[in-house]
Amino acid sequence: MPYYHNSLVTRLIAALIASALLTLNACSAQSSGSGVRHLGAPIEGYSHTSDAINRFSVNGNGGPNVGPHQGGGKQNCCVTLPITWQPGLTVVVEWEEDPDPLAYGSWPEKMFTDAWNERMAEHSKKYTHHRVEVEVAHYDALGVVNVHFLPCNQVKVTAGIYGFGHPQYPYTDSLNMEEPDQCPTTPKD
User: Fold this and answer.
1) CA angle, corner 97, sides to 135 and 155, nearest 5?
2) Is the pLDDT of residue 53 over 70?
3) Domains in the chain: how many in total?
4) Domain-located, residue 145
5) Residue 164 lies inside a defined structural domain of this protein
6) Which residues have a Cβ under 8 Å from the Cβ of 186 and sit 6 or more positions away?
7) CATH code at 67?
8) pLDDT tens for residues 37-48?
9) Each residue of 130-161: pLDDT tens digit?
């Protein structure tokens, strides 16, 4: 069964509000030298693995932190994209990942004490940092920019008006994906 972050009504209202904001801001949309009009769009993230996304950005603009097997709902603003999808459209996604986000729950030290902070500093050395350029899925109208973090540091991005779980949403990946024992290697150019 597909995952619906919010009820259909809530997502429809959010899409209508986003559409209204995009329409209101259209007069301030930027045009590139090619005449393509751009507009700012809010950013959401989804972690499809047991890792937490401590922070991420799209083209240098921040998105929310995302818990393991969670996402959506927390919109940060904004990344500038074309109002209508363009062939070859890509974005740069950078993120910090915590491979053991629940570890501190079992630590004996009281939270935020010096001892706990020392342990957290040691734990944070295990965080990994990633950067990838990824194609944006085709969209007819600019909406929320959704970034999906998948196993093996794979990323998918869409920027349309349909929410995760909607029948017309381009991705159907489960939020409960497991990392394979070995990730495929990609040849370097």
Assistant:
1) 15
2) yes
3) 1
4) yes
5) no
6) none
7) 2.60.40
8) 888 999 999 999
9) 999 999 999 999 999 999 999 999 999 999 99
Could you tell me if residue 12 is inside a domain?
A: yes
pTM assigned to the model: 0.77
The label of the residue with tokens 């290697």 reads 185
Distance in angstroms (rounded) separating the CA atoms of residues 4 and 125: 34
Q: What is the 3-state secondary structure (H, E, C) of 70-137?
A: CECCCCEEEEEEECCCCCCCEEEEEEEEECCCCHHHHCCCCCCCHHHHHHHHHHHHHCEEEEEEEEEC
Whole-angstrom Cα distance, residue 170 to residue 176?
A: 18
Give dist(CA 150, CA 95) in Å, integer.
12
> Across the strands, what pairs with 117?
none
User: Is 171 in a helix, a strand, or coil?
Assistant: coil
Of the candidates 184, 168, 78, 137, the one whose C-alpha atom is nearest the C-alpha of residue 148 is 137
| 30: Cβ contacts below 8 Å, ≥ 6 apart | 37, 38, 39, 80
Rg (CA), the chain: 18
Residue 153 lies in a domain: yes
**Distance in angstroms (rounded) separating the CA atoms of residues 43 and 45:** 7
How far apart, in whole angstroms, are the C-alpha atoms of residue 47 and residue 150?
Answer: 7
Contacts of 7 (CB under 8 A, 6+ apart): none
Which residues on adjacent β-strands are paired with residue 148? 46, 156
For residue 67, the enclosing domain spans 8-29+36-101+127-158
